[in-house]
Structures are given as structure tokens and as C-alpha cells.
Design brief:
HAD family hydrolase; HAD-like_sf; two-stranded parallel sheet; globular; about 30% helix; 5 helices; Rossmann fold; alpha/beta; three-stranded parallel sheet; HAD_sf
Amino acid sequence: MDVGGALVDRVAEGEDTSFFGNRPMETPAVEGCEEAVRELLDLFGHRVFIVSKAGPKIADLTRKWLGQRGLVGPEGISPAAVQFVRKRPDKHPVCERLGITHFIDDRLDVLNHLASVDRRILFTGGLGANPVPIDVPPRSVVTLDSWPRVVDWLREPASGVWDRSR
């Protein structure tokens, strides 16, 4: 999954409480993301990854924010499963190398690059009150607007959830 617009609410972008502002650790989370990450860890175990675009400074702030929220750490996603790239298209080779089968992002252009990912979710629940217009996604991309809907969709057998019993 991505961070900005998926875990971090874009409503604060450009304000003091964003990663680019004066109080980055107060950046708001997308509603329901903490519970959803716990549920994803129950579903997928160690196969939950974060792949996000950020330079070194924002990547460091992001790691701290994720740890402070408990999303990454002993009860969350493994710190080793958090990967950062410098350009959005670079998410594809990382996903391919890690064998990622599902990806959640708020940007259709990113999802379009992820040809090796079977299940792609365009997440619109973290875009704030004035989201940017989104092109019509291809049939291979499902659009979901909340974390509970993401988790419900991933629980459905038709979504291709990885079976840990195999």
C-alpha cells in the first residue's frame, strides 16, 4: 500500500500538520486505516508491505509517523517491509521483486504502472473534501472509498486474497 492519500489524509496537505509543515507528527491519518492495517496483517501476515514515493527527509518523517501510530513496529508492519522510491513509476519493480499481489494507492497513474500486481485498488477515502478528478479506471482497478470497504473487498474470495494455509 501507499502512504499519502491512503494512510495519511491529504486533507492536511500544505498545512502545519502535514509532513511538509511545522508539525509533521500531527499529520492526520485516514479514518479507519489503523484498524484496517491490523486486519490486513491478520489476512496476509508478513506479506503486508508499504511502498511509497519520498525523498530521504520525508521518508524518515514517514517512518517515525508510522511507528508513532503503531502501523509499523512490533504489533504492526515489519520495518523491513517499508520501502521508499524516488519516482512513482519505481514502485513497479519494487512490487515485482517483493511479489506483491494487491496494491492500494490513491493515484491511478501509479496503479497503471503496476502491471505485475493482480489486484489494484484506487483508494479515494483519503483525498479530503475536494479530491482531484479521477479518470475512469480500467476494469483491472477497483475504486473503494473507505478502509472498511477495502478490507471487506479483500476478504472476498473473488478478490484473490492470498491463502496463508497453502
